Amino acid sequence: MKQYTSVHDVTDLDALVKEALQLKENPSQHKSLGQNKTLGLIFLNPSLRTRLSTQKAALNLGMNVMVMNLDKEGWALETEDGAIMNGTTVEHIKEAAAVMGQYCDIIGIRSFPKLQNRDEDYSEYLLHKFISYAKVPIVSLESATRHPLQSLADLLTIKENTPAGKRPKVVLSWAPHVKAIPQCVANSFAEWMQQADVELVITHPEGYDLAEEFTKGATVTTNQDEALQNADYVYVKNWSSYTQYGKVLTDGAGWMMTNEKLALTNNAKVMHCLPVRRNVELSDEILDGPDSLVLEQANNRTFAAQAVLKRMLENL
Ligand code: CP
After folding, report:
1. Is the pTM value of this prediction over 0.85?
2. Which residue ranges form the domains of the chain, and what is each CATH number?
3. Which residues have CB under 6 Å of ligand 1?
4. pLDDT tens sequence across 45-54
5. Contact 253, 176 (CB under 8 A)
């Protein structure tokens, strides 16, 4: 594996899932694979789970890890080709990424969208520039449009909780939030579920349709109650509007997931990528109750990252 930015970089999804679950059984079994190899983790946005689980995954493989909060600790970065850098930016991404590529064997990068210009965000220009200039394998730690390590961990969690031979109904249910949130997690989850053996239903208020490239083939409805009927998994997530890009169109308070709504489901398990706004997106009663899988998802982040890093190390 030379890069990991979406499900399309995975040639054999079932095998990757199997490998991640095997690594979970014995996390140290490939401790010598990453010896003398360095993982650089570059963050332009905050993180708890991605940062720590990816470090842990690399340490399990025997790698050295360097972490840099580039937005706070690096020089102000210029990304425009041909820019006359007589303003506030100090270093061009061409040099910054190339230098980091000299220090690291694999680089992970997290960069959120600005939610101002849809074409710019959806072009994934920053990720692509890193891939071009760093010249080492790149792992997306969440980009403008996708969060593939989260989605792999979500798929592992569904696999572990689904009886063999069952094709579960999985509902991605929009949730309220106090601010505009990117579409990355929802896009990515929808894209991964389309590649998995599940029935995917997406439900959201009017105006919150995701880009068709991620939802094609899924059932999409604005009727949340109808969507929840007989669901085996409910993935709760907020996202801002894609069509009215980056806008919050409604407070959507009635869309918060509660035990009352879960009564419509097939005793569904509830998922969320975290961090979660308690009693805004999801009620305390669900998060503190037996149907929540949120901590299992967070735990599986380590083994998702470890499976991806292992494949990259094997390909160096
Ligand atoms: N789910 C997730 O990516 O969490 P962090 O933003 O804390 O990394």
Report:
1. yes
2. 3-146+301-314 (3.40.50.1370), 148-298 (3.40.50.1370)
3. 47-50, 142, 150, 273-275
4. 999 999 999 9
5. yes
